[in-house]
Amino acid sequence: MSGPEIRRVGVVGLGAMGAGIAQLAIEAGYETVGREVSGELGAKARDRIAHFLQRKVDKEQMSADEREAALASLFLTTELADFADCDLVIEAIVEDLQAKLELFAALEGIVRPDAILATNTSALSVTEISAAVSTPERVIGMHFFNPAPLMPLVEIVRAELSTDETVEAAFAVGARLGKRPIRCHDTPGFVVNRVLIPLLNDCIRILDEARVTPQDLDTAMTAGAGWPMGPCALVDLVGIDVHVHASEALYEKLREPRMAPPPRIVAMKHAGLLGRKSGRGFFTYD
Ligand code: 3HC
């Protein structure tokens, strides 16, 4: 299968990750269709993108005209049918396998047979998601990192049946989005999360073992190990719920004790302390 030229990109789900991916797409000059479940959530995502682009204008990293042109190329919708003309659709919805399977099955009935279907999943299997469609050759993982507009990496994750054309087309899009793409296979956690999730879980366990405060642990890892951001601030940024889910998904697959989410962070999730998005996690936010 030789893929189409990618001109029009769809993004399903405009939360922190999806909005970041849509921002990258419009900045790279793609006509972009962004879908949220309500007009209100779509408008919130557009406001977020408009804000970050305005900061770029303020800092003379882009002109006001470029900002306007980028925002004008973002088409918001609540209808999956509006992805019909997309050459690539990137899914960034909730990390729930059933929800993703249903979405991919629905998308297959809407997009052209040669359109590429990508998932931004952090810890689910791209191959399992690809089983939702009758043409799994065109399914691929495009795993961006939080915050997507700032983090340079995108993992291009080859599922069992992805074709070379699909892999290379997704890689080329990653590069055009200004990222540093890498190719890898669909193993639990891919590359970064396979390493980062157990490491962050170790950090959280050390809070209790060494009786250190989150602030001091973050100082330790930034000032002593050169991390750009401390582990507690990072888990707050990623989302406590997202981190717990990724840990559970990897533990289920690998059965390595370090993958299991520490009880402390599971309790935080149940208490609604989700990090930045809820205003409180290890730290509090305005
Ligand atoms: N979206 C778009 N633009 C953003 C943004 C966002 N979410 N956040 C910040 N910006 C823009 C802002 O306009 C900001 O400028 P302003 O303050 O003048 O308005 C500009 O970017 C720079 O922001 P910062 O000053 O905060 O940037 P820093 O230089 O401090 O870097 C960082 C921020 C890149 C987040 C850095 O702290 C870092 O590298 N942290 C580590 C992040 C990390 O490890 N992420 C990976 C998480 S794991 C993951 O995602 C995997 C998943 O599967 C769970």
How do the helices and strands line up, and which of them pair or pack?
Elements: E1 8-12, H1 16-27, E2 31-35, H2 39-58, H3 64-72, E3 74-77, E4 88-91, H4 97-108, E5 116-119, H5 126-130, E6 139-144, E7 153-158, H6 164-176, E8 180-185, H7 192-209, H8 214-225, H9 231-238, H10 240-254, H11 263-270
Parallel strand pairs: 1-2, 1-4, 2-3, 4-5, 5-6, 7-8
Antiparallel strand pairs: 6-7
Helix pairs in contact: 1-2, 7-10
3-hydroxybutanoyl-coenzyme A is lined by residues 20, 52, 55, 122, 145-147, 149-151, 193, 196, 228-229, 234, 238, 242, 246.
Describe this entry's structure for a reader.
Helix content is 46%, strand content 14%. It has helices at 16-27, 39-58, 64-72, 97-108, 126-130, 164-176, 192-209, 214-225, 231-238, 240-254, 263-270, and strands spanning 8-12, 31-35, 74-77, 88-91, 116-119, 139-144, 153-158, 180-185. The chain folds into two domains: 8-185, NAD(P)-binding Rossmann-like Domain (Rossmann fold), CATH 3.40.50; 193-277, N-(1-d-carboxylethyl)-l-norvaline Dehydrogenase, domain 2, CATH 1.10.1040.10. Helix 7 crosses helix 10 (240-254). Helix 6 (164-176) links the parallel strand 7 and strand 8 (180-185). 3-hydroxybutanoyl-coenzyme A binds next to helix 2, helix 7, helix 9 and helix 10.
